[in-house]
Amino acid sequence: MPKSSTPSRERIVAGAADMISRRGLNATSIREMAKHAKAPLGSTYHYFPEGKQQLATEAVRFTGEWVARSLRKELEAGPAAGLRAFLALWRTIVVESDFHAGCPVLAVAIEEPPADGIPPALAAAAEVFEQWEDLLAASLRERGAGAEQAAQLATLIVAAVEGTVAMCRAKRSTQPLDRTAEQLQALITAAIKD
User: Which of 20, 28, 4, 91 has the alpha carbon at shortest distance from 60?
Assistant: First the structure.
């Protein structure tokens, strides 16, 4: 996640996203998220009075919009450019963290929810994945892919890239990203009519 001298609330959210991307949600306390963000615990509770789940939800949304901004910009040049940007973004994160960080959205999505309902962070993760899929599908449709094919390929891209990030962390290698990039690029080329 980007680092800056942002206001406390945003710094806490960005720090939480980074911490969740490294350790997952269940293995991370709100105290650890505050410490990682170099923020006082009192400030954390001030901004997030509902606690860890509220902070995690904001961290997921923060990551979602951060990635979506990059996608929107790159997708102006077409779905292939969007794919390259999506892959480059995650490559940077896994490499710069020495394969310790991945996607906080995925980290929240794969953890077992409580039996009493869907937590807000998990619902936010679903919304973020849908947002990324929608952006990719719209770009594919604009370049001539049919609506259903565009939707299916967008889902495949998001799922493949998210899974590939997890594989990179496990293998401590970017080879899965390289292989996935090549195959997804071929699918995009076949789907669009430039």
Answer: 20
What's the pTM? 0.91
Average pLDDT, the chain: 93
Between 6 and 16, the higher pLDDT residue: 16
Helix (H) or strand (E) holding 171: helix 147-171
Q: How far is CA 43 from the centre of its chain?
A: 26
Does the pLDDT value for residue 61 go beyond 90?
A: yes
Q: Is 2 helix (H, G, I), strand (E, B) or coil?
A: coil
Residue 4 pLDDT > 60, yes or no? Answer: no
**Best CA proximity match to 96, nearest among 186, 1, 183:** 1
Give residue 115's pLDDT: 79
- Which pLDDT score is estimated for 5? 46
Query: Which long-range CB contacts under 8 A does 81-88 form with residues at least 24 apart?
Result: 82/135, 82/136, 82/139, 83/136, 83/157, 83/181, 83/184, 83/185, 83/188, 84/181, 86/132, 86/157, 86/161, 87/161, 87/177, 87/180, 87/181
| CA 95, chain centre distance (Å) | 16
Q: How far apart are the first and last CA of the chain?
A: 34
Mean pLDDT value across residues 97-106: 96
Side chain identity at 179, as an amino acid letter?
A: R
Specify whether the CB–CB gap between 97 and 22 falls below 8 A. yes
Q: Measured between alpha carbons, how far is 4 from 64 in angstroms, rounded to an integer?
A: 18
